[in-house]
Write a structure and sequence with these properties.
The structure holds two protein chains of two kinds. By secondary structure, chain A is an all-alpha fold. Chain A contains nine helices and no strands. Chain A has helices at 14-20, 28-36, 40-57, 76-82, 88-100, 102-120, 128-131, 138-165, 176-189. In chain A, helix 6 packs antiparallel against helix 8. Chain B is 69% helix and 0% strand. Chain B is an all-alpha fold. Chain B is built from seven helices and no strands. The chains are: A mainly alpha, B mainly alpha.
Chain lengths: 206, 169
């Protein structure tokens, strides 16, 4: 390489990295090799660069966390989708997948039914004794409270059972658009209830 | 026939996910940022594959990766980062002796800390060359710079690293 001449301070030492990487241009190789036979500075530099290059190349390769690999089916994305918590690009992916995967559609309906059931639970008035300052014995509080929590549990279980039992027929027969209409209708009247974007593919769409 | 050359999004995730993760980890020193970058890149790839025409797939992918990384850097600009030691649980499976593991972890921690002190333009070229294993041509395509510039950055980046590290020659 004509450019790499032996000066007080050699220029173009970047050719040493290119040499180590097998990236020299035609005509440069002979010049680098010839230069290295009589320039101690460049020989020392060559060894320094070679050493750091080798160290970089032996850095341990990290495993990709499993959760970042694509799964065959949708998981937490379904709930995030129902709650309107996905970025647009993620929503598109979920919609595409729902359009072509009956298993995930079935899962989607079950999750939505459970979510709807929980959200449909009536708001309960706190027991009167909690709202008054009337002195009562601790034991009395305990019994009353147990009755109250048991009643709430029964109400929750009933609501979930109704939701699950009213789950639509098998996924292959489901009209997804009907479900989405219902969902969006509720979203239009209930603040904080995530609406589903309008671009959901219709059942059987390509 | 040409359509068969375009990989699916899942193919890209399985084939390149680990490389992208390592690229991001070596550039940021932070596993969470690296995981975020992988997710971001895969989403961009998924969106971009529809418009991708078969050609230099690596160049295309790494340009997306690098742009996603730079966007992430801009987002985190005001957030301080500190290098974390390599976690044994994260390392690729192998069975070196405990001494070898210790020496290797210490060495990689030193290199990782030094890498984070190298200016980004140089660091990304060094990482794409020595960690990801791209050719100068592919790196030039990824960082959108001439091959001569890439060649210079790789060498200068390695020199900076060597000066930052304190091992005996």
């Amino acid at each position: 390489m004509a450019r790499m001449k032996h000066h007080d301070r050699c220029e173009d030492q970047e050719l040493l990295s290119a040499y180590l990487d097998g990236e020299l241009r035609p005509g440069e190789l002979d010049a680098v090799v010839a230069h290295l036979t009589d320039c101690l500075d460049c020989v020392a530099e060559f060894h320094r660069v070679k050493e750091i290059r080798a160290a970089l190349r032996t850095l341990p390769e990290l495993e990709l966390p499993e959760r970042l690999l694509p799964s065959e089916h949708l998981g937490p994305e379904l709930s995030a989708y129902l709650d309107g918590e996905l970025a647009t690009i993620e929503q598109e992916y979920v919609l595409d997948h729902l359009g072509e995967c009956a298993d995930c559609r079935a899962e989607f309906h079950e999750l939505d039914a459970a979510r709807t059931a929980v959200r449909s639970l009536p708001g309960l008035e706190p027991p009167e004794f909690l709202m008054t300052h009337r002195a009562t014995s601790p034991e009395h509080h305990h019994v009353r409270w147990r009755i109250f929590t048991a009643a709430a549990g029964v109400a929750a279980a009933a609501a979930i059972a109704v939701g699950v039992l009213s789950t639509p027929p098998p996924a292959s027969e489901v009209d997804v658009s009907m479900f989405f209409d219902q969902h969006n209708a509720r979203a239009s009247v209930e603040h904080g209830f995530g609406a589903i974007p309008a671009f959901m593919p219709q059942e059987g769409a390509p | 026939m040409a359509e068969e050359l375009v990989p699916t999004w899942e193919d890209v995730a399985r084939r390149y996910g680990r490389k992208i993760y390592n690229f991001a980890y070596r550039l940021t020193g932070n596993p969470d940022d690296a995981a975020d970058l992988v997710q971001d890149v895969l989403l961009r790839v998924r969106k971009g594959l529809a418009a991708y025409t078969p050609g230099s797939f690596d160049g295309w992918l790494w340009r997306i990766t690098r742009n996603a990384f730079l966007d992430g850097v801009r987002r985190r600009q005001r957030r301080p980062t500190s290098p974390l030691p390599d976690d044994d649980r994260l390392l690729a499976s192998s069975s070196p002796s405990p001494d070898e593991v210790l020496a290797s972890v210490r060495l990689s921690e030193d290199i990782q800390s030094a890498l984070l002190k190298v200016p980004l333009d140089f660091r990304e070229c060094v990482v794409l060359c020595d960690v990801v294993g791209l050719t100068y041509e592919e790196i030039a395509e990824a960082v959108e710079a001439p091959v001569g510039t890439v060649r210079s950055r790789i060498h200068r980046g390695r020199r900076m690293l060597r000066e930052l590290l304190t091992w005996p020659v």
